[in-house]
Records
---
Amino acid sequence: MTEKENQTEKKTGGHELHFSSLYTPEQARRYFHKHQESLGRRLSDWQEKRMARKALELAGSPRSILDLPCGAGRFWPLLAEQEGRWLLAADYSAGMLEVARQFQPAELLSRFGLLQNSAFRIALADESVDNVFCMRLFHHIGNREDRLRILREFHRVTRQSVCLSLWIDSYWQGWRRRRLERQRALGKKPYQRGYQDRFVLSSETVEAEFQMAGFTVAGKVDMLPGWSIWRTYVLRKEE
Ligand SMILES: C[S@@+](CC[C@H](N)C(=O)[O-])C[C@H]1O[C@@H](n2cnc3c(N)ncnc32)[C@H](O)[C@@H]1O
């Protein structure tokens, strides 16, 4: 094993996802600006934060949170709203963490402890935080075993709950995405980047996986019921 492969093995537990290496410093900068680029994106960013805020309330307004993956810190103002909350933020991409350090206000940044870390192997002791806050990771994970490995790692690290967003096929956008995936699989439509790196799942599939990893569903918040593909689950750790 080369030194680089050895480092990757240490960070990911041998489970690097193809999409994980896409967030170069340049891509990270683009991601930081992406959600404010147009009126449509600002509106969906606002709706997503409203969904996340509701999920945190359903989780009981946790006193300590690990934001994983934190990206460039898009949710930090929301997470830091609660005074005295103990905050950690982790991401696989050094580029994302660097952009967060550069662009987030110093006072906000000072509230967070930062870790460069894979969700497959989190460098924290068992039950380190009350809540793992996981936005926009699971729709990139098409493999069930990968999802289960991450969920079990969240189960180890959280004391109480997880808030996790993903793509669900229940409503219009999800149904349309499902149809697109079928057409691509049949070769009737091309893949955007030549491969698939985002996946829509059924609620039955994910809820069975949550249970297998030791969680019960304490709440579900849809970004726009009847329309949006985004749902955030609030998961309660079983004893
Ligand atoms: C779509 S971004 C979401 C970031 C943030 N939660 C947000 O919504 O703005 C996906 C993030 O997942 C990170 N990532 C990819 N693979 C990861 C892994 N195995 N462990 C932890 N983070 C990972 C990427 O570096 C990227 O920052």
---
Amino acid sequence: MIADILLTKDVNTISTSDTTDVCIIGAGVIGLSSAWRLSNAGFRVSIIDPAIGHGASWVAAGMIAPVTEAYYGEESLLKLSLVSADSWPDFAEELQQATSMSIQYLQSGILMVGKDADDMAVINELAEFQQSLGLQSERLSAREVHKAEPLLASDVQGGILTKVDAQVDNRLLVQALVSACNRSKVSFIHQMVREIKSVKGRVERLLLQDGTEILADKVVLAAGSWSSSIQGVPSELWDLIRPVKGEILRLKVPDPLSVLSHIVRGVAKGGVIYVVPRQSREIVVGATTYEKGFDTSVQAESVYTLLRDARMLVPSVCQAQFNQAAAGFRPGTPDNAPIVGRTSIEGVFVATGHYRSGILLTPLSAMAVTELLTTGTINGAMSSFSPQRFEKH
Ligand SMILES: Cc1cc2nc3c(=O)[nH]c(=O)nc-3n(C[C@H](O)[C@H](O)[C@H](O)COP(=O)(O)OP(=O)(O)OC[C@H]3O[C@@H](n4cnc5c(N)ncnc54)[C@H](O)[C@@H]3O)c2cc1C
């Protein structure tokens, strides 16, 4: 018996004993995919979250874009992203088989385009950077981008095509992961964890919002942007993860002929924008990036700017029906890379800080968490992303 609900007169009592080996805090894509994999590896898993699947994972755009998301100074994150992107086709297939649900994983490719000469200078610099890293990306003239994507504005001047970049419908992904967890007998506890309680450097209990305490021998902290703010988290995680707000729009185009065949990203008069088309005729337009704590409001200015910039590249977006504007929190870290590994509290493991790439990194993160809990170490690409990398020597 490794986790249990304490039965004492000081706390609420729920009689579930001998049922759990691992408690996962947070049911976003990282917690859910880890729960599914751990359960299939033979662990009895409970996942605790008051709002299952409704964090950043619900808000995101669903791009699996290691090449387009390659940034200066983030070469080790790029390597990780390429490995995870490679494992996406099998992961998607396995999840769909397990649940009989489609998650619309599509290798649609990304067209990164520019509107004027200054925008094209940015695009050309990006193309050179991608090519210097040996990434597959192809420069296209104005004629070639319009041939590839006839819905682009006529004055788009050219771009880059990255065929390996892909997408998944992140909301279908969340739903499929919940279903897969259910089928694998993962227990869901609809509560907030208030505190991780440890004794002599070893985790002992989780205190839940309603006062219930769960005996816990192994805990995976996967609470996204909230991972640093739970009482009792290991000291090396204090202040390490911060919420980076992103606002995003969901529209629906009126007819199948108005659906783009690629994800379109671009620079439009200096504004950076993406438009992600779904098979369902939904289009996702995003996203803002700024730091304002846990403020979930959507600014009218952001809606205006996103639509204005998207329309400069794809004029037909303004004929679409406006369905939703939402804000979510990317779990940011000091080096923009995830944190997966063991912590200074024995029995507490962490899988968080996936910043702008949590959907992309889902298959690899779940695999690394499973390897960690099964063998005690991570040997693959994720091995250099432990929390210990931030230790001051
Ligand atoms: C606008 C936007 C666009 C994005 N687009 C992309 C994209 O195209 N591609 C990509 O790869 N990534 C994208 N991302 C990033 C991606 O969404 C995140 O990296 C990823 O969803 C993080 O997953 P997670 O499971 O760690 O966190 P979350 O999905 O935020 O889940 C954390 C969960 O923890 C729970 N929780 C919090 N505190 C507690 C507690 N005390 N007790 C119990 N549970 C708790 C929350 O309720 C939540 O459900 C985007 C993000 C945003 C905001």
